[in-house]
Amino acid sequence: MKKIILFGVAISVAPFIAFAATAFSVLATVNQILATIIPILITLAVVYFIWGVIQYTLSTDEEKKKKARSTIIQGLIGLFVIIAFWGIIGILTNTFGIGPTRLDQTQIPCIPSPSAGIYC
Known about the structure:
By secondary structure, this protein is mainly α.
């Protein structure tokens, strides 16, 4: 009876393991796509913000200043959202250990020698 229950549990858990592997590959793909798109979006948000500042400083009409102030605020909000989203994706990829491996994260092989106090 125990073997039947163990086999049933193993069969019922197998799809979840396969789904977890698929979810990690999807997160890795999303991370690679965002690594190329987000710097472009940050650049566009900064340019939009600077354009609003230029419009605000050069305009003399109160209505144009109000529109430029709105542009500045929208640029700042957009920049904040993009950077916050990038940070959340970074936290997720670092937490689950997925994504590209950086050179500073590579591990150097170690030969343990307890007598010399070297533990790997």
